[in-house]
């Protein structure tokens, strides 16, 4: 059983009727419905809950955190960011979606600006599979077509990904590293680009499949905690 | 269920009493006994069987091939090498152990000489975990101690590993990249250094655990076969 | 001074008037003219010369080999392939252009099929810079536009590149890892996609700049030759 | 000409006679003397200067910053850390030495704790070259021996290095990724492990050579500044 917490900012769904129309149950609701399966225990949390719904207790009970945020990165409490990063370092999996790239949390874990090119023009995105041997693309064809999406373009100011899983083509002429993995401490991270709030991306079955695969891939490995600090010699030091 | 074929050269066990004493059932037998579990269907094959026991049928029915060879790399049939490489490209997992680094098959998949430094001096090896987030080290502590092993030292002439999982320390003063992953075509490869025929390395429970973990990690991902070749445009090409 | 040998198959320029029109001095002539500078000593070689013009003497005197081939990969002598690979392993730089991806030499160095999607449709290619910190993109803007090129698309069946420098966008809807580096033995390799024989790509100043930068980047590092083989212990082995 | 700024904390040399004896001109003085060459314009800066000697003007005029710090990471001004990281993102090279691994600046650029195992036991370190094709090891043999050093051991909690150049062997039984490169924004970073203040490591000619090579390798590439932000479509977006 993998304990999954889906965090969604859940601000635009409440403010903008056109977003609410696409996501009546919130982006978190659409993702939860889409990835549901027997070996996932799913809960959700949102920005306006106390401590953004990500208390010590919730995070301690979370194996994999899925994160979608956009319009109030600035208002996200620093203390909760520290808490999330600490849990990633301890082994919690983290899936950062779309505009989460610019969250303080993701930038802190990456060590870069995470800036990019962008455009909202209802344009076609095609995500090509770059690593066909990776469990994150199990069940996925050579590419995923999304008829309308926001464009994100290179240069994407991220560290070199540990693994590059998807590259996107955009109708307007750009490309983007759309699926990237990273390791930070004992934890595994997957960044997955698509999912602007005004498009039904999180109702797409292939997108569900990628996210569900990523939950399994980022889930923590069972090992004793890594020790850091002063270490006695394991061998005699001849002098 | 993962279909595992353990291939062992099985020459030295038959020729040298001191090796037979360590591995009365062959290295393949020791590994098979050590990694046995409900979700593995294990068979074995050896050098002197027709086609080295790796016929089209056997390989077609193999999800993960474990490979140990040493003294007759030169005598391994080229046609069977082609067959193995083709299956790796199609997605079969491959675990290459110890002196398999110098097999024609591994060198062909790597594109390098796979040369290294070596010494047989009954010396201590300690394999340090470099990537604590990787499923291959699930259940493994900070390092694995082997009281006596053959030394392999850097520079190890391999391509840069996709993932570096273990680095070995040797009493005589060398280090070695002991656990390395690679992707070739649709297939995943794990090279794992320890296992000289004269030491009881393949009776060690932690070594069993690493190999069993690697079986799961290298197992093929279920996807439609990747298409290569001429491709019609997916979008109108304006001129 | 870097000794550069530009190898061009030079078959299509002699057979097809439309290719000769684009490259009256051959592709090798266009590249030689384009990358000329004081610290490069450039020679050229072609398929129909004895030993394809790549004798022991020529390769021994070559720091960086630039390689363009297409229609007669099958006819390239195995012995010369061995010679090139040996020199790469010893440290010679290698720049493989466009259809050289399918040469026996490149496939041998990669360990994969190097298959891909392709289409000849006079379509636009845009190469986006993915690694702005890399010396290979010195002097290059955010992207290079090529008005007409052959399409190569993902999945490109190569090992994971050590460094990903360019990703191409194609008008027909595909993407491609267009600039990739690899290390093999002591040698550095750069694969650079553009350059179909019927388009004036090798007259483009930005393409010249990338190739010239790559010559500098792949040039050998001056070190004593790496030793491989039996190694005496550097430290006393306590037992 | 590469403008190099060597930053040294320069606290222990002033407090501890045994350190002053090893580094009478400070660690910065030893490094400056060791890497001196015609194409480097070297200046130094230390902790107790205003703004730690790393003013806007100094950093704007710095191509490569070499950084050694140890006992007062906590006292390093956050504003100067921001300034350094901004310059790295813009392209300034950064070489972080030894205990600089635990500086707030390095941890911020890495996104991890940068914790490790450590021991001060006057023990032998041997740095093995892992990437013989890399310019950072030009002129260096198969390994560098340091008769006495502080031990740093794995697991080193860093992101997966972009390139792994050295791995250290320690007499007491540990290994360590001692030479690692990273890219952050437009800038290149080299972490180099050896150099505890009580040992004469920075008087060693091979260590000088590695640092000088790294200065050249991390020096910025000349390109126009990368643009990030809203981007007009380069192609018509058919709907």
From TrEMBL, chains A, B, C, D:
It comes from the Bacteria. This is Trehalose utilization protein ThuA. SUPFAM superfamilies: Class I glutamine amidotransferase-like. Residues 4-218 form the ThuA-like domain. InterPro entries: Class_I_gatase-like (IPR029062), ThuA-like (IPR029010), Trehalose_catabolism_ThuA_prok (IPR009381).
């Amino acid at each position: 059983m993998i304990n999954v917490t889906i965090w969604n900012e859940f601000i635009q769904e409440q403010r903008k009727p056109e977003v609410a129309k696409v996501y009546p149950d919130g982006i978190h609701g659409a993702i939860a419905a889409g990835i549901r399966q027997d070996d996932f225990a799913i809960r959700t949390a949102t920005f306006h809950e106390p401590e953004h719904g990500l208390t010590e207790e919730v995070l301690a009970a979370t194996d994999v955190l899925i994160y979608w945020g956009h319009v109030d990165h600035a208002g996200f409490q620093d203390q909760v960011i520290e808490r999330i990063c600490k849990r990633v370092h301890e082994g919690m999996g983290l899936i950062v979606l779309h505009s989460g790239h610019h969250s303080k949390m993701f930038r802190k874990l990456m060590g870069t600006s995470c800036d990019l090119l962008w455009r909202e023009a209802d344009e076609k995105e095609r995500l090509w599979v770059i690593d066909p041997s990776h469990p994150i693309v199990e069940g996925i064809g050579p590419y995923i077509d999304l008829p309308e999406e926001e464009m994100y373009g290179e240069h994407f100011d991220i560290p070199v990904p540990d693994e590059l899983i998807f590259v996107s083509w955009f109708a307007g002429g750009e490309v983007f590293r759309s699926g990237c993995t990273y390791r930070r401490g004992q934890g595994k991270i997957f960044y997955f680009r698509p999912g602007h709030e005004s498009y039904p991306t999180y109702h797409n079955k292939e997108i569900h499949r990628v996210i569900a695969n990523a939950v399994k891939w980022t889930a923590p490995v069972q090992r004793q905690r890594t020790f850091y600090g002063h270490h006695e010699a394991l061998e005699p030091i001849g002098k």
